[in-house]
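Sequence in, structure out. Go.
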Amino acid sequence: MDLQIDLVSGSPLRLQLEEALRDAVRSGRLIPGSLLPASRVLAQELGVSRGVVVDSYSQLVAEGYLAAKRGSGTRVTTLPAPWGRAGAPEPRHLT
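Output:
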């Protein structure tokens, strides 16, 4: 996985990782259903603590970008199309 984290920038590593993962999902570099590396593996690859990866994954699960299931790993979810974009469904109004 090609993620860029700047270990000396002063910006919190967790926030950098969250943004890098969001960007990878939004740009299509990580497609829905893709299995992400285990937190220990990604932490080692990036040179950060496992807690940074666990916290980032948890935040992105809460935002709907990722889905985590014990024993099945963490996967990229299918994001709904934003309202107002071409091809997006129109919001329904209750009558």
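Check: Strands lie at 66-69, 73-76. Helices lie at 13-27, 39-46, 50-63.
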